[in-house]
Write a structure and sequence with these properties.
- The protein has 16 helices and no strands.
- The protein is mainly α and 376 residues long.
- Helix 15 packs antiparallel against helix 16.
- The longest helix is centred in the middle third of the chain and has 30 residues.
- The chain is globular.
- The protein starts with a helix and ends with a helix.
- The mean pLDDT is 81.
Amino acid sequence: MSIRLLVFLTVLTHLSFSACRVIISLTAIHYGASPFVVGAVLSLLTVIPILFALRWGRWVDRTGVRVPMLGGVAAIFLAMVLGWAFPRLETLFVVSPLAGSGFFLYHIAAGQAAAMIGRPKDRVKNFSLLALAFSTAGFIGPTLSGVAIDGIGHANAMLALSVGVLVNTVMLAARNMDVPGHEISAGQQEKRKVSDLLRIPGFRLVFIVSGVLSVTWDLFAFVMPIYGSQIGLSATTIGIVLGAFGAAVFVVRLLLPLVAHRVDQWRMLIAAMLLSGATLIVFPLAHGVPLLMALSFLLGVGLGGTQPFIMVLLYDKAPEGRGAEVLSVRTWLINVSQTSVPLAFGALGAALGMLPVFWVMGASLLVAGHYAARGK
């Protein structure tokens, strides 16, 4: 498997999945579901991955990436076909966990492939290209889903946009392309514990940095629309401000493969945390749209390039044969934070207003940056 092929497969997979996620939400609303029910359906995307994350990561380590990737894209395709064949609200409670599980499995296997293709020094470039693939599809998928729903209806849109994972299912089934797994004895398998990873020098620090950055990314998408509404911005304007963030992420990830081999990974992460933290401290003090767009773009610059460096640092510190397991732990933490952290910060915002929310986010990044600089 080459990095170009991996990027192609990832664009198609994430295009279908991101479209599926939007269609699930809009279909539930179309059937008259309450906001609580819509939230419950979407939360099912991460329920099964949270329960089985470690087992799947260890499976990828043992078997290689082809079979897990094939299983992942096939699960997403099956979910979308079910959504088309049985267009009812109840069906979404099956479609959501099936699609979420398939994407999680593919995501772990794709990360493993990016880490093992080429030489160790190619990892930053590989992870940067993989992140760019996710960003590209993450923009195209939701856009196409809206157009498809308006043009051919919710159920037919689900079927039409499953073509990406259908193509990948056929390609992965027909072609013998793989990255080998690691043979591990039964004794070694029994001894595996996540707590062992946290005892590795520097590993806990990488997890803390990864967690803070991931939570900040998710929270910004959550709190920015609330803050924008509070200061009187229209939905279109809020979308433009968030679009500035997305544009910065895309630009950074586009440029990162060209300069990745010239930069120090830890210094880049520390700089990103300090820049992002300072930006968030200033953000709730701004009200003009041009300034908000500039700050949003600056935050996107800070956060956009961090994922590839985090992935490389985690993989480089992982014990032999446990790379995918490490990546699955990180993704598990992200899924948990996506489920729980917005609720906590939403309660804080309801009680004290949005300014403390931004300041807590910014202060967390500044403290984490200082901690990372001292612990490097």
